[in-house]
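Bench notes, bay 3.
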Amino acid sequence: MLNNKEYLNKIFQSNKPLIIYKTIGGYDVYTDFKEKITLNSKNFKNFLNKKTLQSKSPIKELNCYVGFFGFQLLCENIKIKIPKQQSLNFYPGLVYKPQTIIKIRKNIVIKSLLKNFRQLQTSKYENKYFYQKKFNLNLDESKYSNLFKHFSKKIKLGETYQIKICQTYSNKSNIDAVNFFWKLMSINESPESFLIRDKDYSIISCSPETLIEKKKDVIITKPIAGTLNRTKKMTKKFANNFFKKNEKESKEHNMIVDMERNDLSRICNTGTVKINKLKTVEQYRDLYHYVTEIKGKLKKHITNHDIISAMMPGGSVIGCPKINTIKLLNGREKLNRNIYTGSFGYINANGDMRFNIIIRSILNYKKRAEISAASGVVIDSKPKREYKENYIKAKSLLDLFKT
């Protein structure tokens, strides 16, 4: 019989659907899915408020649904319609009910509801992996500058104060998702990293941003607002001084923090929304981020749907004010965002949940790979700097295709 490590490696080498999620001290691998639910605007509320509560299991770690909500689904949930766009017709959202969890820590521990979970059944069909090194970009510098000018006018008119213009890199690829994920983790492991591998698609992510972390009646969000290109000689102390002294970055950060506090205040008791950690610097391979942690205590009778509707889409990757800015973006973006600025995570049957914002991610679907990035435009932004920032944010993912 295979030991736990051998069995895990065999799963990785197979084409079996699985999810890997970064957690404190390691990774959780979910597989043997009992249910797979395609979410849409008609069943979303019912799933959040009723279906998740029925997820009873004798193994507490499996008492959950794990999956993602796409950007368009989250917009439709708060009654924002998206005009017709170029689209891959990707899933609006998908959630999975796992029956096996493999905990990768110092040791590998497997818990399963199935007695025969080690009997690995794989398809005879073999994936033919390939990938291109070059990417097409939907907005070159000229197109980006024109869109930048358009939104700068909107800022001057007071229709928005900050707006995040999305750029998408794409090529023809059918990638080995598990191999790409571990390569990415070796160079840019992030707190909200995850992988979904299914039969017809994969998502590989090194997302750094936690949107919702809820335990009992306490909810935390950690908005990121502020990016600095990291060089080899640059220190964390230097980055901290840069953010503190840079008026634009500070104003932008304060604006997003205030917006996230406002979102939390809609679902939390008056006076309980507090800054837990103010303006800390997080270090990644190619950049530094400016992060604040906000905490609140939920009102009684707040539902899962109430929480998701208040917090999603995450404001830090849209702009401010959130609703009007989403409408401005949707009116000008010609390419569907798919997963980008959507959310991935889990909901337990007891109501606890954890969700990120899907950024720094690769979507591989229909033999096409997509990587999207966005930077915040405010009144004194410069188009060349913001254009370059988008590339910096996508770089660790783009580099995977060069090796």
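Next record in the batch:
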Amino acid sequence: MFNYTLRRLLFTIPTLLFISLVIFLLLDLAPNDPTGNLPLTIPPEVRAMIRTNLGLDQPVWWRYILWLRQFFVYEPLNLIEQMFHITIGDGHRLRILSYATRSPVVDLIVERMPQTLWVVGMSYVVGIMIALPIGVISAYKQYSWFDQTGTFVSMIGFSVPTFFTGVLLIVIFSVMVPSDSFFWFPSIYDTTLKVTDLASFGKQVRQMVMPVFVLALYNAAQISRFMRASMLDNLNQDYVRTARAKGLSEQVVVLVHVLRNSLIPVVTVIALGIPQVFGGAIITEQVFKVNGLGQLLIIGIQGADIPLVQTLTFIFAVLIVLFNLVADVLYGILDPRILYD
């Protein structure tokens, strides 16, 4: 497994370089102009000076090489300096700067990351905790009232868009319910709230309830369907009948033998969904005004902030490639029959 993991890591290098080139060219050749949002009264020569200061007068290939060096060399060195409070070299490096704020892009991402992990990460964990037992019980009690109810709720959660679910919850629990009621929840996420005591912790939990529920319903609907289908495929296998014939209890057969083999395809769905946690829920963050990475990406696209969009998009691509590798490695842990030659 170590050799397989090492080979896959080496193979990801040209893969990520190709992805970075595609992302860079698509965004650089797109008809976006960083000066397009400036007032029309600005003279053309001033616009040309702004483009020169932004480095847009340089050739495409040179700007791509510079961006690669900034992303893979300068930004990691800067993170190491901040984490360990040391200085490497002279400490002055040309970092990836946002066109709009002229701030380092990585600093903007690190600033928004906690809000995204709090909301989107918690919703993903809650969705998995709900989906796995529902999928197992639905498959074991196929066509029962529990299975039919779970199927109905899953179809609703997967079919109804998150912006509709979010607005519906806001209308019910923020508009129709009085503000002094126990069932009232704030419709706008306060990103400036700091948890310092029990009261502030309660406010944090209350403002997370609706966005977490919206995303958890969507994630649970998808994962529970995969879990149910995988369990049904394994419940009728020969090894299950053999385990029952040996006198093993039904609980051991289902939770040890069947569940372990059924988790193999579900691991792919869960692992490939983890990058979405870091990417943020763009629509849901817009509905509840969560100041996370999804909203940051929307701001970058609207403002033609190419370095910000390039860096965020490439980080998402890196996470997808890495967690795809994690899923492949977990296959061997869940199923010893899988050999990595």
